[in-house]
Every structure is written in structure tokens, then in C-alpha cells.
């Protein structure tokens, strides 16, 4: 009975909207919006969820301010959004100036495609980045979606820029770096 009612409502809506310049597909999408087919989940080993192991394996850990989006790169089934990021402070490694950062995810046909629901970086925002560097293309890849790009609040960003008290995320990373490297 319930399915007959929902079919009747859907058909009535489609008929009613057909004279208003709305297609049946558009009407159906309003009733039952399509789920993004380009969303995906990555499952990580304990190397990512164990912070000491995660930062030990990273080449660079730094605080950076996103200056601008610099395009997209699509490789097979992977989409990367590219950003120009100004290095504010090094936590591990020795970067300076502006670096190229790649994040898994992007926009395809007007639709945002994300990995692990990790939002795309935002221009003028400040993050703690945990990256692996690819020297062949001079690109710093965020080490893991949702773990390698930690947003800082405006207050936290000011504290970092002024060498004030470390925000909790940075303090935890520094503690993890002091730990002995995990056995391999």
C-alpha cells in the first residue's frame, strides 16, 4: 500500500510539473536526490591512525595558509585538486615560501567529489599539513584524507604566526615526533 501511494505521489508530481518546464528526471531528483557517485572511502592501516607512526613516515609536517586553488589533475580514476600554499611554520622538514599541495578530491561536472568526506581546502584558511613530497613534479601530497590536513581556527593561526602557544593539534604532533620511531 505504501509503495502504491509513493508511486501515485511521484506520478502526480511529475504530471503537475510537466507543464511547468520541469522534466520528469528533474522532478524525481527533487523528490529523491541522487547520491554522489564520485564519493569514496579510503580505509587506512594503523600507520595513519597511530599519530607517532603517521608523522614519522611523513616527509613534511607544516602549518600553511592556502593562497589559491591552482587547478586539477586527473590520473586514471583519481582526481586531485592542486593548491598554492604559503608555509607559515615547519614542524618536521624544512620548507619555505610557497609550495604546491595536492589533495585527493575535486569538482567534476559541478559536483564535489571527496574522499572520506574530507572537504576541499579553502582559500585563505590555515591548516596543519602532513605530506609526502614527489620531487619529479614538485608536489606535496596530503598523506591521508582527513588526517593530513587539519584546519586551524583564526585564533590558532594567529598564535602559530606569532610563535604563541601551540594549538592542541600541533602539540600532539610534536609529542608524537618526540616518541621513538615505531618498529618497522
Automatic annotation (TrEMBL):
Residues 1-27 form the signal peptide. Keywords: Signal. PROSITE patterns: PROKAR_LIPOPROTEIN (PS51257). This is Lipoprotein. It comes from Mycobacteroides salmoniphilum.
